[in-house]
Amino acid sequence: MWFLLTILLLLSNGLTEGGVTSTYVRKAAPSVEIPKECFPRPPGYNAPEQVHITQGDYTGTSIIVSWVTPLKEQPKLVTYWEADDKKGITRVRARSRTTTYRYYNYSSEYIHHATIRRLKYNTKYMYELGKGNGTRQFWFTTPPESGPDVPYTFGIIGDLGQTQASNQTLEHYLASGKGQTVLFVGDFSYADVHPFHDNEKWDTFGRFIEKSSAYEPWIYCAGNHELDLAPEIGEQVLFKPYKHRYHVPFRASQSTSPLWYSIKRASAHIIVLSSYSAYAIYTPQYRWLKQELPKVNRSETPWLIVLMHSPMYNSNNYHYMEGETMRVVFEPWFVKYKVDLVFAGHVHSYERSERVSNIQYNITEGVSCPVKDPSAPVYLTVGDGGNIEGIADSFIEHQPSYSAFREASFGHALLEIKNRTHAFYTWHRNQDSMAVSGDSIWFYNRYWFPKEETSSNTLT
Length: 460
Ligand SMILES: *[C@@H]1O[C@H](CO)[C@@H](O)[C@H](O)[C@H]1NC(C)=O
Ligand SMILES: *[C@@H]1O[C@H](CO)[C@@H](O)[C@H](O)[C@H]1NC(C)=O
Ligand SMILES: *[C@@H]1O[C@H](CO)[C@@H](O)[C@H](O)[C@H]1NC(C)=O
Ligand SMILES: *[C@@H]1O[C@H](CO)[C@@H](O)[C@H](O)[C@H]1NC(C)=O
Ligand SMILES: *[C@@H]1O[C@H](CO)[C@@H](O)[C@H](O)[C@H]1NC(C)=O
Ligand SMILES: *[C@@H]1O[C@H](CO)[C@@H](O)[C@H](O)[C@H]1NC(C)=O
Ligand SMILES: [Fe+2]
What we know:
This protein is an alpha+beta fold. 14% of the residues lie in helices and 28% in strands.
């Protein structure tokens, strides 16, 4: 690898301005979905399935548990206890709200969402769903209380779908054993690429991710494949399956929509945005973000992280410039408030940007190009979960100066926050063993330690 990269550097000297295009390109192969029957229901009568959890409040002492039961609404309870309490003597119950929806000729089963509140920080809990021979047990660990030097590790996965490659991505992430919470940057099941948006694919996806999502929170962000707009079959309500199945604690951050919200988790303040909802001035999303950013307390949560689906900096021919309008609206705030990292998906490849900004633009002077900016975020495109649509293997030739590293592979990323100044970031391509990283860099916090970073793939 190093040898190849060195050759590449010698050949391209003077052509690029520091950016690296990896010579590794995943073999373009058809991405076939795993058949539905390979995602069987769990055994037992009316057994809860598709279990997924997410943070349930602003600060991390609540969890939203979601699951589906096929036959009946009952039981609507989640029972939980501290894992240290081996016999489960102090069991507590929380009741779920149950919903169903119809999509064309599909009728959902019973979808339950229960919020467990007033949990202790940094504590492992067991929880139980269902009854009789359909009873199932899971567990989760609450995050430590927010604080400037609290270590915490996030996994970053995007555009996952349900193919063999998707399974590789998720297995690989789980095998690392490092991730404590998944930041999921959108495009879940890809049900919408099937005739009539075959919503059974939402069910199989829920079963597929359960091995991770039942045990650690996934922070959900909506992508274009969550829109499920199909007026030709009478389906005009945007995000209908997604909003029924994946609940988020948006009210806790004074948001008016589940499509944009924020949470504090350990030493990170995470802002989730919607690329497919209005964001221009006066819109609800714009107003919410405007009041949210000044609230971020970098003494409490030094790391300011933004999730969105469509990347603002992308040098792939796929989805080129689709994030441009949101960039024009929000980028000046990202720089003003010193956002550390922006994670996006959508493009089925991997790319990491330099710290650049392009906020000089005004139409009278025509000044508009990305410049190095120590207050700017690094933009990471991690749309490489490996879904049915295949790899985005067509990068724009002559890598633009804003692009630091790019590679046409599937994989996932890990962000290991160490303290208020340092976070170790790695990206792992599916082909390598977990110990190998295709890209790695020590990120320095923009508020506490705004030093320039160098990565394993910086060849200057
Ligand atoms: C599970 O319970 C249901 C209803 O209580 C019963 O009909 C079924 O036979 C049981 N299945 C097994 C494998 O015990
Ligand atoms: C829904 O309609 C399509 C097309 O008519 C059909 O192929 C499919 O089997 C139907 N599904 C259900 C659940 O009825
Ligand atoms: C996913 O991969 C794991 C590990 O290789 C394997 O055990 C499992 O059966 C796969 N899941 C599916 C649905 O193919
Ligand atoms: C920010 O958080 C710190 C540490 O928790 C706290 O002492 C301080 O009062 C907070 N600042 C504001 C403006 O709330
Ligand atoms: C437009 O850009 C020019 C050159 O950078 C600057 O002098 C001017 O103040 C800008 N105008 C506005 C309205 O931002
Ligand atoms: C923060 O973490 C980095 C990496 O582990 C370490 O080198 C540095 O000394 C730490 N800073 C403090 C103040 O502990
Ligand atoms: Fe997408």
